[in-house]
Amino acid sequence: MPTNDPRPTKAVRREDARAKALALRQEQERKAKRNRLLAIGGLVAAVAVLGAVVFAIVRQGAERAEAYGTVQYGGGADGLVVPAVDEVEGPSVAEGGAIPVSAAGVGEAAEGTTVTVYFDFMCPYCGQFDAANGAELEQLAAQEGITVEYRPISFLDGTSQGTFYSTRAANALAVVAEEDPEHMVAFMTALYDNQPEEGSSGLSDTEIAEIATEAGVPAAVTEQFTATVDGTFEVTTDDGTEEREGTWRTYSPWVAAATQQAETDLGGISTPSVLIDGVKWEGDLYTPGPLTEAVLAAAAGAQG
Fold first, then answer.
1. Interval 190-233: pLDDT, tens
2. pLDDT tens figures, 37-72
3. What is d(CA 90, CA 220) in angstroms, rounded to the nearest whole number?
4. How far is CA 141 from CA 95, 108, 215, in A?
5. Which of 119, 144, 142, 143 is nearest to 131 (CA)?
6. Phi-psi category of 278—alpha, beta or left, where left has phi over 0 and alpha has psi -120 to 50?
7. What is the pTM assigned to this prediction?
8. How far does the chain reach from its first CA to its final CA, in angstroms?
């Protein structure tokens, strides 16, 4: 339809274009400012979350340091001098770093064949070994002329996030061996049945005590799992050897010494390690049967 409105002049069209361009720039600047503010806000929030996480980790570390600071012999001090196993007080049923079990009972070695097991309660392969062989080792120990030596060690302490689970579990086993030996093997099996993942914080002291109770260990014994003793230890320094005082779980020195002895015995620690009459057995550790057959063959050879 024809119109009488005059067509905008070139100057008017130019001003309209400028106005639109200005409005567009202003809108873009508003969006950019909003995006910057959102980005800054997100960064601030992320920093706050990170700070909270770091704070929680630091606090957790401090809490664990306080809760488990009296677990290890010498507190894990740099340059710690670990004594020989015959220089520390272990369970009365122990011989060196081993707890022998035979038909005569816990702490009694039989004349004949000895099967020795080095293990760490945090080691997953030790759990697999016990699942395959634990019951068979009990049956072997019940036979005349066969001794099973259990050697708990703690070389995986550093994998339990500052709770020293390996030492705590080994110490608890030593307490049971001393105070309630008839339930020692059952307690050991129960710990494996409830084995925590390697790299986790492990079972709490309360959980260890509950597992022991379910295995038949009296409360008067489980209460001693967290008992501590005071003593002295030595560290090497640039100026020589220095004696210090400390507090630790009752059998922590024995566990540390047994771990060092295992390093010497085995030429480097690997768990589980099994010896038959002092010779490392290289057979299948994770299938029921082969180990029993090897032990029985050794026992038959010894009797022959």
1. 999 999 999 999 999 999 999 999 999 999 999 999 999 999 99
2. 887 877 766 555 555 443 433 344 445 546 799 999
3. 19
4. 16, 10, 19
5. 119
6. left
7. 0.80
8. 125
